[in-house]
Amino acid sequence: MIPRPTPQKVRIRRSMMFMNAQKPNLLKDAYIYGVDSIIMDLEDAVAENQKDSARFSLFNALKHIDYGDTEVIVRINGLDTPHWQEDVRVCVAAGVDGIRIAKCESAADVHAVEDAVAAAEKEFGVTPGRTLLMAALESPIGIMHAYEICTASKRLFGAAISAGDLRKSLHVKIEQGGLEMFVARSQVVMAARAAGVQCFDTMWPNLDDQAGFEAETLQARKLGFDGKSLINPRQIAFVHQTFEPTKAEIAYAEKLIRSFNAQQDSGVGVYTVDGKLVDVPFFDDARRVLAQAKEIGIYHGEL
Amino acid sequence: MLNAVKREIPEAVLAGRPVYQGKYARDGQRLHKAAPTITQAIKPKATKLYASLKAACEACGAHDGMTFSFHTEYRNGDKVAALAAKVLIEDLGLKDITVAATSLGDAQANFAQYIENGQITGVQTSGVRGVIGEAISAGKLKTPAVIRSHGGRPRAIAAGEVHIDIAFLAAASSDEFGNASGINGKNNCGSLGFAIDDAHYADHVIVVTDTLADFPNEPAAINAVDVDAVCVIDQVGDASKIATKEARMTQDPRELMMAQDVAKVIAASPDFKDGFSFQTGVGGPSLAVNRFLEQAMTARQIKMSFALGGTSKAICDLQDKGLVKYILDTQDFDQGAIAHFASEPRHLECSLDQYANPGNKGAFVNNLDFVVLSALEVDVDFNVNVVTGSDGVLRGAPGGHPDTAAGAKCCIIVTPLTRGRMPTVCDSVVTVTTPGDAVDVLVTDYGIAVNPARPDIIAQLDAAGIKHVTIEALRDKAYALVGAPDPLQWEDRVVAVVEGRDGSVVDVVRQVKPFTF
User: What is the model's pTM?
Assistant: First the structure.
């Protein structure tokens, strides 16, 4: 195995790109595009009778290919299939950074995977607790249980809304403006923020409709998501640009922190910056923006 | 004798030429230009039309041992070069013929047989592909072929190193006195930049067209003052074969990523400012650079003063959007560019002499800020091979590669790190066509490397936060992915000489030894 850095529960995850684990030509250098996380897919992209060969190519990819600081996550098969336990063993043995639980519907689902992961970590001598989890919420009941899912495990770094199946269950189709997914998206953001984990928007399936993709991405950012799933490297640049702080946001955050540092000793709790009232939560947010900009490499200031 | 790119050049092939000593080694040297010997037309003639190409050749004194030239503006659709060779060799029975071409490919496939028969005994070209390359690499040509760049060709012609007896110049339209152009005909090719110098330096010029225009056929690329004879044939070229599949804008994410990285490198340079100049090719990632450059230009609110060289619809679109002041066009790569050339007054014809000749008082390449080029191979000294394949067989064209690389302030090579199981970045290229002292940046899908001779560019990339690695790291990565190839096996015999744009010898290509396990 190529040694991988310890997975970080909190890190930049603007983009998560799906790759069919069955296709070595996709796996071999998926990291070159600069995506934050790649999701090797053992689930829907892989034919039912090819699950084993997909696991094999996934394992060997991690054995021989250095993915560097690109996060490697694997989407395992659903808990209602005979595949998921073996998927978990392969993931842990291969030393992946995280597992995406497909069609997660309850805290119990998270616990089931958590137990299997812990057992596999023991079996393969992997540091206990190393393997992270994320949940894909793809059904109305999963959305309804978003908060209990987001708080179900210390290993869980976030939840993704997956709209393909969800739209079918809701009896809706893709609408311009995203009206049909508005409540579900907001619910996931709310639950994730309440639980203190990250949240990710669904992928845009129609590669030729760039305008639709851009509109959906912008909306996800406005709703509060941390990032978005995607299916083609061509989508990375726009997703990154959308989910990273703008120059103006960085400049304002810097100004806030500087003013806070200046005011700290004078005992003033609330004051104005650029004519706008600011208090403690503003500074926390400003620190978050600067930390994010630093991690992405677009802020080189001293704060 | 060892040259500056560490290639051993046999004394026998030098034939008075120096070995390559650096990109500007011969700067400032004096050059005596060789003028043609022409037949004066003092007494007015009713016409220069001849009933057949054979008759025109006879009138122009076609003879054994002669050199004929042609241009390849019709690229894969050219019909005139193959016809001219047939008339000289089969109809007139001439032998010991030398070909002086701007390129050679499938459209001239009949040459391979003439080479094999010993009827064509010399080849001078700026590119060679397909069966002709295979015939030369197999040692069938009597004398070593000479491969010259697009700038090296007019230099050699002007210096008298190549003397053209008859130039056969395909034209989309011509009047019966030889005012000819690449437009206003049935089969347009756009710019005739490849043909103009031949018209000035050949002893005899035969214009071949399929569209006879009223006199005077203006604007003319070829002027009647240089033309001895005009022939009308059914079709000079199949313009639909000009646009190869390469000229399409790629959707491949890997190529788009490389194109975007090229644009980032350009945008990080202080020379990326209002009035900058630019050239790119039509390979997938090279062509796509146009798209990302447009975004950077719009964001920076700057315009290009001129786009140079081979022209595609993509750069024409930028001009139509007001982002490019002049297009200086040596050849057109697609129908869109041909139509644009015919209609846009600031889309101008540019001869190869004007474009790239190092043997004049300053070609356009000397004013070029950025050039984006592809490569078959790049080695750790930044030497580029664009002429021989991994099997050692001639199958490529330097074109303007060495000229633009040497002239431009910043030469960027863009290529995938591996092709199939061949490493593109390697210890030593099979054949050096563009010396590494003219190459500044290499962009691959696995990272960017800057020539250590350009610390200024390294500093620019660092300041812009653009990651880069050493070229050795890229080579190591390539070898780690696909393995290091075994060295090729050669016979002793030299089958081609790669002449530097300044007339020095950069490298030689030897006959390939059939592979045995």
Answer: 0.91
